[in-house]
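Standup notes
- DV: blocked on the single-chain target, sequence here:
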Amino acid sequence: MAAAPYLVALALIEQEGRRALPLAGRSLSAEAAAAEEPTQAAHSLALELLLRLWQRSDEGPLRRACGVESLLLVEVPIESLPEALPVLKAAWLNTGDTAAFQNGLRALCSRAWTLSVAKFEPVTLTTWPA
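- DV (later): unblocked, structure below
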């Protein structure tokens, strides 16, 4: 695990025929980083990101670009934020190569989950890749 982990929620979406990859993130406390799943921080980030997506829907319909793997939560070293993550994001936006994006993200992150919800159930974190 990284000395300074950072939790990032990201959504791979398409809107009006264009790819978008909005994200939200925050530093994890040592306690949250040591937990099996950063549940409280994950729920907070997911809410923030989904509210931004909802606001964005005013500009046109949104579509998940990768099915159930479209909403991800990843734990990355804070050092990767200014360089590695933006490079991955730009490459996916430009090429749409989801496999390359996912492989790069897996190499970058120490832990990762997909986010999902079922009717009458709380947000579920599922280890990614499954």
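- Follow-up: The longest helix spans residues 39-56.
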